[in-house]
Specification:
alpha/beta; Aconitase, domain 3; binds iron/sulfur cluster; binds alpha-methylisocitric acid; 647 residues; globular
Length: 647
């Protein structure tokens, strides 16, 4: 098998990571391969479903080297629902013998980077920002919960061999310009679909100057390009970081061959990078900060898995020390982990932050996923996060901008969007030699013997997973919704206040497409399901499989679009919704909301036509699927498939 692999890819870090885990297929871009997964991570908002699926599949203990269940998204517990989710996650982690990172211990990606991520390993996470661990030289990929549940049960993970894009970094970052500005520059150049089917692999003379937390900011937000993942080599910087978190024994070198050739190259001279900002309502809407300078700001939020490292928050502390946040503005800071929080307190930086008027929130996702700090009507909110989709903050009319910590603090101090270079220069930011790993909220796996007695607790809000019906020979129904390009999973299945419904599909399904059309649920019910028409990059953003599961519950039969985002496409197959793309993109204009459609599904590998019964036309469409995907769809999704064929 090895000699059939594309020789070029084997010289890349990505290729080396893939090859050492390759179990099926050949490493030729576009071809489907299966890889072994060493580590998995889940978080509460996707994890309850992943574990319900594990239970449905009869998985009783993980077969991975390491699996961690994090509780970080919804920690507020406004009523029993969320508290029940936590108890379920705690009890099943104990039963399965997993690590459990309890609420308040930190954001999964930051904690994983500090404690568990290792160069040379594969990590599959039920969260789209899992690539954060690419900053340490791991092959870290985001996926739907069902794929992660299967990997936890020892099954291989399937993906298309990506094209490897080399992102060559040269030069040196100027004062007050940050790693965040590098990834914003990447987004400015390739946009929110520019990474689809690709891995962004960083190389070049500037790499040794970037610390692991800086690299992790870049790999984290690489998710916003649609890339399969992003990766850095593992070098002396990686060793320094792993030493600082007490894991130098887990370090190993990982680098591309000297004569590496990439399929494409993006070159960025860091000396020329300037402070950038993503304007509402897309992370791809990037402009120089100077273009929007002077805009009045109401709120600043620092944190999220993109920018909540010790380095980030010490930067904020240095800039805020002895100053005061503008009076009519609210500044919040969410440390990425309890260890970061502890170190800030221990070294006195917390006092600088509090003294300047910052409000310190828990070490969780918090405002990033609409858990608190919803801005006021029409507010301008500057956030160091990675997503600014409309309404995600909890306020539809809010104008959310994404920036570096430096830019965010400059805004907090001046009350208007400001170029941080106007704020003077920062001294070198010191990394503590040791970031002490706080263990109070991290529960290690139980001994196998003790697990037998553990009872898994399902509260009343936790509804068992239901299997879908087999696909009929003809799909018929109405076009319930026609959508534009770049529809995100936040449009399909809003998070925020509904996070506590993640374990209860019948209830959560009442909110499908609510941000786009609040009448959708009732209409879908009345018509007994139907079809969705969409544009390019449908389903971009989060990995939440509820964006497939809940529409499937409402009997959405097929989704016909110009193109799909990777994780969402896999989720649609897993939950039995037929994904189709237009053969001719202009045919998008030949379907309207309300049109009656039908599709003959007997030969999905052959020519497929979408019959528009209302307009009396046949539209050629195709499936972006493999033969196996088609088999899975035919039996009603992955759970039915595994139950039927036990494979
Ligand atoms: C997000 O940032 O959108 C989330 C919330 O972390 C999601 C996961 C989810 O919906 O639970 C993600 O990025 O995958
Ligand atoms: Fe949490 Fe936001 Fe990161 Fe998603 S993007 S994992 S919500 S901090």
């Amino acid at each position: 098998m090895a000699n059939k692999n594309d020789a070029k890819i084997l010289k890349t870090v990505t290729g080396k990571l893939l090859q050492t885990h390759l179990k099926e297929g050949t490493l030729i871009p576009g071809e489907e391969i299966s890889i072994r997964i060493d580590q998995t991570l889940t978080q509460d908002a996707t994890g309850t479903m992943a574990f319900l699926e594990s239970e449905a599949l009869g998985i009783d203990k993980p077969q991975t080297e390491l699996s961690v269940s994090y509780i970080d998204h919804n920690t507020l517990k406004q009523d029993f629902k969320n508290a029940d989710d936590h108890v379920y996650l705690q009890s099943i982690a104990a039963k399965y013998g997993l690590y459990l990172s309890k609420a308040g211990n930190g954001i999964c990606h930051q904690v994983h980077l500090e404690r568990f991520a290792r160069p040379g390993k594969t990590l599959l996470g039920s969260d789209s920002h899992t690539p954060t661990s690419g900053g340490i030289g791991a092959l870290a990929i985001g996926a739907g919960g069902l794929d992660v549940a299967q990997a936890m049960g020892g099954r291989l993970f399937k993906l298309k061999t990506p094209t490897v894009v080399g992102v060559k970094l040269t030069g040196h970052l100027k004062p007050m310009v940050a790693a965040k500005d590098i990834i914003l520059e990447v987004l400015r150049r390739i946009g929110v679909k520019g990474g689809v089917g690709k891995v962004l692999e960083y190389f070049g003379p500037a790499i040794p100057h970037l610390t692991v937390p800086q690299r992790a900011t870049i790999t984290n937000m690489g998710a916003e390009t649609g890339a399969t993942t992003s990766v850095f080599p593992s070098d002396e910087q990686t060793k320094t970081f792993m030493d600082s978190v007490g894991r130098s024994n887990e370090w190993s070198e990982l680098k591309a061959d000297d004569d590496v050739e990439y399929d494409e190259i993006i070159e960025i001279n860091l000396s020329k990078v300037i402070p950038l900002i993503a304007k509402p309502h897309s992370p791809g809407n990037v402009v120089p900060v100077t273009e929007v300078e002077g805009t009045k700001v109401n709120q600043v939020c620092i944190g999220s898995c993109t920018n909540s490292s010790f380095e980030d928050l010490v930067t904020a502390a240095y800039m805020l020390k002895g100053k005061r946040v503008k009076q009519n503005l609210s500044l919040t800071i969410s440390p990425g982990s309890m260890s970061v929080y502890y170190a800030l307190a221990k070294h006195g930086y917390l006092a600088d932050l509090i003294g300047a008027g910052a409000r310190i929130l828990e070490c969780t996702c918090g405002p990033c996923i609409g858990q608190g700090q919803a801005p006021k009507t029409d507010a301008v909110s500057i956030r160091t996060f990675n997503r600014n989709f409309k309404g995600r903050s909890g306020t539809k009319s809010a104008q959310v901008y994404l920036s570096s910590v430096q830019t965010a603090v400059a805004c907090a101090l001046t009350g208007v969007i400001s170029d941080p270079r106007e704020m003077g220069e920062l001294r070198e930011i010191p990394m503590p030699q040791h970031l002490r790993m706080k263990t109070a909220l991290m529960v290690p796996p139980m001994e196998e013997e003790d697990r037998k007695e553990i009872e898994v607790i399902h509260g009343p809000n936790i509804k068992p997973i239901q299997c879908m019906e087999e696909m009929p020979g003809t799909l018929e129904g109405e076009t319930l919704l026609k959508l534009e390009d770049d529809i995100t999973t936040d449009h399909i299945m809003p998070a925020g206040v509904y996070l506590s419904l993640r374990s209860n599909v019948p209830e959560y399904a009442k909110h499908v497409f609510e941000p786009v059309d609040p009448t959708f649920h009732d209409r879908a019910k009345e018509k007994n399901g139907g079809f969705i028409i969409g544009g390019e990059n449908y389903g971009q953003g989060s990995s939440r499989e509820h964006a497939a599961l809940c529409p499937s519950y409402l009997k959405i039969k097929a989704i016909i679009v110009k193109s799909f985002a990777r994780i969402h496409l896999a989720n649609l197959v897993n939950f039995g919704i037929l994904p189709l793309t237009f053969k001719n993109q202009t045919d998008y204009d030949r379907c309207d909301q309300g049109d009656k459609l039908s599709i003959n599904t007997t030969n999905l590998s052959g020519e497929i036509f979408l019959k528009n019964e209302t307009k009396k036309i046949d539209i050629p469409v195709k499936t972006p699927l493999t033969e196996k995907d088609i088999e899975i769809l035919k039996v009603g999704g992955m759970i039915s498939y595994i139950r039927k064929y036990n494979k």
